Every structure is written in structure tokens, then in C-alpha cells.
Amino acid sequence: MFQPNYHNILDVLKNRRPARLPLYEHIISPEVMEKIFDNSFAELQGGNEKDILEFFTHYCRFFKEMTYDTVSFEVCITEILPGGGAIMGGKPGPIQNRNDFKKYPWKELSVRYWDKAMKQFEALSRCLPEGMKAIGGVGNGVFEISEDLIGYEQLCYMQIDDSELLSDIYENR
């Protein structure tokens, strides 16, 4: 029976030859996992603590049964951005000008993120099979976040029309 060993990934990351070449996928959709297992569980991710534990039991089992050494998982920052959604297209982001930038609730973002992410990360850690570790964490890069806050088209315009505002958005702490 397959026994995961996360040290194989660590060896690859250190540019050393691992005992076995590990598989890695950055993200695998739970809906795809459901089709492979013929078992529904994706909707449990947003439920109560018991549901979230059951979700991660199935989620982690997938990676082990498919012979991965690690479980990939992330909670995307764009999921917690007030007024977000521009990254998916079809609407402008919540920041279109300097006034929007000043009013944006920057200080509450870390609290919002951890309110959403911590229960998932804790459940994931409780469900990891022996020999496995999780890879991932915070999802979305700087460009994806700015695209969600501004919108792609407006982001392009802002780069020329108000580069100081764009710079401030990237440097906001």
C-alpha cells in the first residue's frame, strides 16, 4: 500500500534527487475529486466544523489514494475582499479612484481572511494522512488581487491615468 512521504517534495525543492519522484498539482478541484470517487463532498467545505472535517477527510484521502506526498490547498484572498469579484469579469472593482481607495476597509482584511481560513487550515491539519504535509496557504498573487480590487480594464487605464494611485494600492499596508 502506498505510503506518502513529504520529504520527497522537500528534496525536489532543495534540488536533490528524491527517493521517488513525487506528483504535484497546485490545485485540484473538489468537483473533479467527486467525479473520480463518485462521492459528493465539495458542498461540505462551507459548512459547520463537522462538515469541514468531513470535507477534508475526503479531500486528503484523494491525494493519498492518487499517490501524492502532499495535499495542495489554499484559501484565496479574493474570496474575502469587500466588493470583490472583478477578477471574474463583467463588473468594475470597488476601487476606481482615490476616494474609493481611502474608504476601502484595508485594516479589516486580515481579520476577514483569518475568520474564513483558520477553521479550514485547522481541519486540514487534523485530516492529513501520516507522512503527508500540506502545501499552499494564501491564494492569489498581487496582480490577481489588484485585478479584483480595480478590474482588469480599469487597471490598465489607471497605470497611465493615475499611476500614483496604482502605486499606493500596491504599497498599502
Secondary structure topology:
Elements: H1 7-13, H2 30-37, H3 49-65, E1 70-76, H4 98-103, H5 109-127, E2 133-139, H6 142-150, H7 152-161, H8 163-171
Parallel strand pairs: 1-2
Q: Indicate the overall shape.
A: elongated
Q: Supply Rg.
A: 19 Å
State the distance separating the first and last CA atoms. Answer: 48 Å
Query: Which band does the percent of strand residues land in?
Result: 5-15%
Query: What's the story with the biggest beta sheet?
Result: 2 strands, parallel
What is the oligomeric state here? single chain
Estimate nothing, just give the exact number of structural domains. Answer: 1
Give the ordered list of helices and strands: HHHEHHEHHH
- The number of helical segments is 8
Helix content: 40-55%
Question: Taking all residues together, what is the mean pLDDT?
Answer: 94
User: Got a strand count?
Assistant: 2
Q: What structural class should be given to the helix and strand makeup?
A: mainly alpha
Low-pLDDT regions? none
Strand order of the largest sheet: 1-2
Features:
173 residues; mainly alpha; two-stranded parallel sheet; 2 strands
Describe the structure concisely.
This protein has 173 residues and is mainly alpha-helical.
Question: Can you describe this structure?
Answer:
- It is a single chain.
- The chain is mainly alpha-helical.
- The protein has one domain.
- It has a two-stranded parallel ribbon.
- Helix 6 crosses helix 7.
- The chain is elongated, with a radius of gyration of 19 Å.
- The mean pLDDT is 94.
